[in-house]
Amino acid sequence: MKHQRICDRAFTLIELLIVICIVVILIGMLLPALANTRDASISTKCASNQHQLGVAFAQFAGDHQDLLPREGKAPWRGSLAESKYIPWINALQPYVVHDGGRNDLASPVYLDPAHPNANHHVQYVVNGIGFPDLPRGIDVVGSDRRPATPISSLHRPSEMIYLTAFTDDADNSIAGNALRGDLAYDAGVYDVWNVAHLLGPDHGSNQFAGNVRRVGINRHGQSNNVLFADSHVDDRPAEFIQWPKEWYDGVTWNPERP
Question: What's the pTM?
Answer without folding.
Answer: 0.78
